User: Fold this.
Amino acid sequence: MGKPTRRDLLKGTGALGAAAVVDGALGTPARACPLVQGRPEQATTVSDRHGVLDVAVIGAGVSGAYAAWRLLGPEAERSRKLKELRQRRGGPLAVALFEGSERVGGRLFSVTPPGMPHLHAELGGMRYVSSQPVVPDLVDHLGLPTDPFPVDEPQNLVYLRQHRFTQSQWNDPKVVPYGRPAAIRGKTPDDALLSVIERFVPHADTMDHQAWDKIKPTASADGRHLYDIGFWNLLLDAVGQEGWTFLRDGLGYGSVVDNVNTIEAMEASTADFVGSPPPQYQLLRNGYQTMPEELVRRFEAEGGTVHLHHQVRRIDRETVDGEEVLTLALSVWPTGRPLTVRARHVILAMPQRSIELLDPDTFLFTSDQFLSDLGSIIPRPASKLFLGYDRPWWEDLGLNAGRSVTDLPLRQTYYWGVEGKQPGADPANRNALLLASYNDLSDVEFWNELLTRPNRLAPVAVTRPPRPMDAAAPGTLVDEAQRQLRELHGPHARIPDPTAAYFQDWVQDPYGAAYHFWQVGAKSWEVMPRMRHPLPDANLYVCGSAWSTGQGWVYGALSQAELMLEEHFALPRPTWLSPSVYLGA
Assistant:
């Protein structure tokens, strides 16, 4: 078979998923109400006499919203590079933010169920860790209220291999139905995984991200670099099939122990949880989507413009009055009207799949190095199902917060909250919200088969309108989830019919994945700086969580955006962020 062409590498078919919009959906389809309203047919209005923007930011997820805001924020006045752009223009910078969908937020998608104005179904990112760089400081700077996010509470349930016990019983070998090797017997899944990691990286439980970055190029096992070993392979050798199955089932995530880059997997499982006292999970009280929305509000207040329903299809280079610029070919929906936008600098705040969906003749794809770096990560599927009820039935079982874990396709169930217990809510309101299923990898496919799905053989059309973010869940999926919830919680559970249901699978285009992870063999410390500026002779940059240390976390998206701005736009570190904060390679 001959070497594939770059068209072959890029055209792909994509895994098909759906944010279910189907017959039999429960209740009224729920859309997140975008607080930044789009003007679909408005042409770009911020450009100079030649029709050229200074910076076009593509993608209004959290990294794009952050980059756009920072370019017009107070520190921009101290950037030599931005000063030169202002002098060329003879006035304020012309910065525009383009988004293909109808909303700001990307994979931060917060839906407020009817009758629960103070609860928000987080169908994408849902929490951060207090120790993570950038996020806590940015949350404080933006004035976004937070609350603790409980996870493993001792009274919560574990249901594995049809055995039901509580989180407090992990240490009892007579209760846990796995023939674990002596090295991890009597340990919780978290402690067992850490003990294996520390066989290869001593004192891993004390290492932060900076310490991990120092050892990544050299850390080895049996004469092989850890970055060249699949984590599943290493764990199977270390604890056997039964031990590996215990970790996969008990952790609640198959992806944590999957065959990805071992050194990166080890860091992801430890570095964010270093400190004394241990860092804590937090959530944004009004929904995680409020972070990019607030960033966009501030961006617009500084003179930036936002263009929703503007889908980028292709990027070219051309010369205008002796100046090389980047030309963006867009489709403006709902009509699909073509629009050309020119910019001196372009920031692609886009995940892997969104970049792959660009026209294959986009000039970026002429670089073999870029194609290699683009493929250095693996897309990971994950989906969520939220169910609303007229009462918190789980409290009858002594369950109040945190999660229960199972090897059923539900995998993780979070007791999200009761409306009347939220700050500012009516105490008499007993409506309650449950994250009924948070699952990944093969379990996603189980739930997708209960959806009405697009034709798998239909060709991908890069000019089609983006699918609306409509998260109504179909009745067939809800019925199966109810059945599994009854099995997880046991014969004493009295589970009423739900009043609301929302489902989101992030494999759908243009996202392609819920998050990404480094391929075996990838040298992240080399790839990340290259991706921030893929071609030395083009003013084009990439940022987001896909190629970051914090893959799957907002801090990965923000850290890469901040490093890109500091390195390539000469932006000084913002005053609200400590100069000593380590942002990664």
About this structure: The domain at 6-10+37-106+287-379+516-568 is CATH 3.50.50.60 (FAD/NAD(P)-binding domain). The longest helix spans residues 231-251. The CA atoms of residues 219 and 225 lie 6 Å apart.
